[in-house]
Recover the amino acids of this structure.
């Protein structure tokens, strides 16, 4: 059994800068709240400005800490990701933490799988590459938010970004598999180039996030929205607990680069945050290299060490 880990175990973060995508709600909001409580200046990179401003007001009313900043980021648009990274880097030449948290799940329709891959992986790839110089300057940590659903994902090295035709939840699993593959290959390349930047992955287990409750407005169905909301409310762990794997991956110096952090309990649904295993596909080096290179090509980006 893993030893308990909570925010009290994390170091003081005064003077540090943390960028969190999708920080206006759910796991992203709890992650931002925790980082701010420890003293970090949190940059909330979100698509919806009104929701982000409301979240910032809630944070300022509920606890002490530096005033969070908002930067517009639409991960479905590669150019938006580049622009957001540029704006943040201009304001913050050094970035200590990048939490790639935002995501969408279970979208229906013919373009649903492609939209999921763009938002969950490719937008984050463009955003991350744009922030690498600022992360390098600080010796920063990146955390990619994955999911235990990655075990349902299906990707082929011959065309690693192709998930069209997959059912909505399989497609979601494939995007989370892609996130893990990208993180593990990025770790390999960062080590090889002796970069000061390090990367880890994390998953929240079964948490009361808003992700599973997406409805028709986000491409889901009314049924999936109702069931996701009901299941999360009555069976999922609180979002504060769901955010702990992400926070431990970012803040615990004992978690090595390239690690994957999640709940230790049965099926990794609940429990103390600890290092966990990934699927055979997620640790396939051939698939990882193919996915990594295809991702960079898709967003017209270059990895610094290449």
């Amino acid at each position: 059994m893993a030893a308990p880990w909570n925010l009290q175990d994390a170091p003081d973060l005064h003077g540090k800068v943390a960028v969190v995508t999708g920080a206006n709600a759910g796991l992203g909001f709890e992650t931002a709240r925790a980082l701010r409580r420890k003293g970090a200046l949190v940059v909330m990179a979100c698509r919806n400005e009104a929701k982000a401003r409301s979240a910032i007001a809630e944070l300022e009313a509920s606890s002490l800490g530096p005033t969070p900043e908002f930067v517009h980021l639409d991960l479905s648009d590669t150019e938006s990701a580049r622009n957001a990274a540029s704006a943040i880097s201009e304001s913050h030449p050094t970035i200590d933490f990048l939490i790639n948290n935002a995501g969408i799940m279970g979208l229906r329709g013919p373009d649903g799988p492609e939209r999921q891959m763009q938002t969950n992986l490719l937008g984050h790839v463009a955003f991350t590459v744009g922030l690498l110089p600022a992360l390098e300057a600080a010796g920063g940590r990146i955390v990619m938010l994955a999911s235990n659903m990655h075990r349902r994902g299906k990707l082929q090295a011959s065309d690693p970004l192709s998930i069209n035709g997959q059912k909505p939840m399989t497609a979601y699993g494939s995007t989370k598999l892609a996130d893990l593959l990208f993180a593990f290959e990025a770790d390999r390349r960062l080590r090889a180039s002796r970069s000061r930047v390090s990367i880890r992955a994390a998953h929240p287990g079964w948490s009361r996030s808003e992700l599973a409750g997406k409805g028709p407005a986000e491409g889901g169905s009314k049924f999936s929205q109702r069931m996701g909301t009901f299941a999360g409310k009555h069976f999922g762990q609180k979002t504060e607990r769901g955010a702990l794997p992400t926070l431990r991956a970012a803040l615990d110096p004992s978690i090595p680069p390239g690690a994957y952090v999640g709940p230790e309990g049965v099926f990794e649904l609940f429990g103390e945050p600890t290092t966990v295993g990934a699927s055979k596909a997620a640790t396939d080096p051939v698939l990882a290299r193919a996915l990594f290179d295809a991702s960079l090509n898709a967003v017209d980006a270059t990895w610094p060490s290449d």
Summary: Strands lie at 17-21, 41-46, 69-72, 97-100, 141-145, 198-202, 260-263, 273-275. The first strand starts at residue 17 and ends at 21. The longest helix spans residues 112-138. The chain has one domain: 15-298.
